[in-house]
Specification:
Lyase, Ornithine Decarboxylase, Chain A, domain 1; TIM Barrel; eight-stranded parallel β-barrel; globular
Length: 421
């Protein structure tokens, strides 16, 4: 469920017409719904309520500080994968003891940053990182709390670019080597083991891969405890998918996911940490764009929009589907026709959809890409010197720009011409 619905023939975000926002800020722009973000976060807290838990929002999915503050004020922790994301969490007012630091390439500088300001734990991904973190912590006179990410070699049955739990992926250590790696971690003076971390991928649409992974984690927990390690937290990552195509079968609900966690891991008495991103933010956002031209080709018609692949790269990068809706609701008897929906960037890859059935549209009409809240604005670029587009947050009948569109002067002033040119 989300809060983007037609009212009186116009697509609204909660109680605000998207056309009203477009008239104020111009197109294209991202729009997020406070009510949807709140509801989707709450679904996870309710699902895990039988167990001690912390829901850590995966900042990589949507990193605007206003959104992070909204979720942080609801009680969310944050999962960060860079020093920049760590700084965003702090800027949003999130307590350091609710921030977990993931990622395969943490630098010594990032380790020092987190140890200086505080961290709930580092999710360590390799033995070299483990040794480097211990050295940094000892140098600073600190102890770094850690989990070690284990790779359970489970096929997440998702897109190859977002699968992370198979043995050929770069993430974590093989679960078969976990006992010896934990033994080394326990011997390093700057580290304190607090738990186990696992994350098998993103946009999972069935629970069976999670169950396979979590059963392995349960067995590993018992083994490590028998070896004398203190395992009090299980970080289970994120990955639960969303229905990008409304015609498809809906992925499992957070309540079903929570029941699976309780069934496979609840007996261990550990605090459960999860790191959802997409399921909280995905359906909480839309991308609104305007039709520049309708081009009649030899064997197809093109809708040329003012949004492009640099604004929403998922279709180009992953072949991803986003439902596209006209902002003005079509009459019930309107007959749809196929369009290739494209942007103005000079690449054939700048294509959002092919042969997509839509009501007849003309230049100046507005369209909205659904389920664009996750991995939309965060993956945008200024390719073709196109400014990053605004982000807007709606609450009820109010809206605010939470990231403004930069001017061309601001963009150009970031470049510096050397004196010798």
């Amino acid at each position: 469920m989300d809060h983007f619905q037609y009212r009186n023939g116009a697509l609204h975000a909660e109680d605000v017409a998207l056309s009203e926002i477009a008239a104020s800020v111009g197109t294209p722009f991202y729009c997020y719904s406070t009510a949807t973000l709140t509801r989707h976060y709450s679904l996870f807290t309710e699902a895990l309520s039988p167990m001690p838990h912390l829901v850590c929002f995966a900042i990589k999915s949507l990193s605007n500080v206003a959104v992070l503050k909204l979720l942080g004020d609801l009680g969310a922790g944050m999962d960060v994968v860079s020093g920049g994301e760590y700084r965003r969490a702090l800027a949003a007012g999130v307590s350091p003891d609710k921030i977990v630091f993931s990622g395969v390439g943490k630098t010594a500088e990032e380790m020092r940053l987190a140890l200086t300001h505080g961290i709930r734990q580092f999710n360590v991904e390799s033995e070299p990182e483990m040794r480097a973190l211990s050295a940094v912590a000892v140098e600073m006179g600190k102890i770094a709390p850690i989990t070690i990410r284990v790779n359970p070699d489970v096929d997440a049955k998702t897109h190859e670019k977002i699968a992370t739990g198979k043995k050929e992926n770069k993430f974590g250590i093989p679960i078969s080597r976990a006992v010896e790696v934990y033994a080394e971690a326990a011997s390093l003076p700057g580290l304190q083991i607090v738990g186990i971390d696992v994350h098998i991928g993103s946009q999972l649409t069935e629970l069976e891969p999670f169950e396979q992974a979590y059963k392995k984690v349960a067995e590993l927990t018992e083994t490590l405890r028998a070896a004398g390690h203190t395992i009090t937290r299980l970080d289970l990552g994120g990955g639960l998918g969303i229905p990008y195509e409304r015609s498809n079968t809906a992925p499992p609900l957070p309540l079903e996911y929570g029941a699976l966690i309780q069934r496979t891991l609840g007996h261990l008495g550990c605090e459960i940490e999860i790191e959802p991103g997409r399921l909280i933010s995905g359906n909480s956002g839309v991308l609104v764009s305007k039709v520049i031209y309708v081009k009649n080709g030899e064997d197809r018609d093109f809708l040329i929009l003012d949004a492009a692949m640099n604004d929403l790269v998922r279709p180009s990068m992953y072949g991803a589907h986003h439902d596209i809706l006209p902002v003005v609701e079509p009459a019930p008897a309107t007959e749809a026709q196929p369009y290739d929906v494209v942007g103005p960037v000079c690449e054939t890859g700048d294509t959002f959809a092919k042969a997509r059935d839509l009501p007849p549209l003309v230049a100046g009409d507005l369209v909205a890409f659904r389920s664009a809240g996750a991995y939309g604005a965060v993956m945008a670029s200024e390719y073709n010197s196109r400014p990053l587009i605004p982000e807007v947050l709606v609450r009820g009948d109010q809206f605010a720009v939470i990231r403004a569109r930069p001017s061309y002067e601001e963009i150009l002033n970031r470049d510096t011409i050397p004196e010798w040119l």
